[in-house]
Amino acid sequence: LLGVPAERLDVLQHYLPASELASGSAAHQGRYALAAGRLSPEKGYDTAIEAAAQAGVPLWIAGDGPAAAALAAQARERGAPVEMLGRVPRTEMPGLLEGAAMLVLSSRCHEFSPFSVLEAMGAGVPVVATRSGGVPELIGAERCVPRGDATAMAGRMRTLWGDPVRRREEGETLLARAKKNHSEKRYVRDLLALYERAGA
Fold it and tell me: Given a cut of 90, is residue 185 above it in pLDDT?
């Protein structure tokens, strides 16, 4: 990468504080799909809105940005079950995740390790995401759909929405991945090991 030998590169995964790791998944009780982030074209919220319209799944969108007005207009024109929440304080996100049946990540740009996905994993919430950057590695490629493919996204949303047991199972699986791969303990251990190798 950029002329640096592969053997000299290490990946240090993000971590979630222990306080953000749920004891179990409550996704089977979720009342809506949730999407959160900056409302800009490269984030693909238009795809998420179209998917929600096709699937008939209520979608709450938390965030603000230059595409907000156009997205609200799209939702109205399509009759999509979408609620635009506007900018949501960081402190309110855990509460939104508690009530979510799934998180939707619709990016059409390269996502390295989106924190919204990690937060959903830590909350035991299933993720419907596009194949973007490091996302398949985070959640498993089988949980991803092609970028910009609203029909594929709608299909996965519909499947999860109609099967509360599956939602809980997927939520538990992602929660276990978060605890294994993204705990603060693991982060500190890997960081110290990195320092040791760099100083050797």
Answer: no
Q: Are 138 and 132 in contact (CB under 8 A)?
A: no
* CA gap 130, 72 in Å, rounded: 21
Residue 90 DSSP one-character state: G
Q: Looking at the predicted structure, is the pLDDT value of residue 187 above 80?
A: no
For residues 73 and 136, what is the distance between their CA atoms, to the nearest angstrom? 31
> Quick one: DSSP state of residue 16?
B
Rg (CA), the chain: 17
Helix (H, G, I), strand (E, B) or coil at 124: coil
Average confidence (pLDDT) over 62-75? 98
Residue whose tokens read 């035991």: 124
Rounded Cα gap, residues 49 and 58, in angstroms: 10
Tokens of 179: 């605890």
Q: Please list, in sequence order, all residues whose beta carbon lies within 8 angstroms of the beta carbon of residue 148, skipping any fewer than 6 positions away.
A: 44, 47, 108, 130
Could you please report the per-residue DSSP string of 18-74?
GGGS-SS--GGG--EEEEES---GGG-HHHHHHHHHHHT--EEEE--STTHHHHHHH
For residue 173, which of 125, 119, 133, 117 has the smallest C-alpha distance? 125
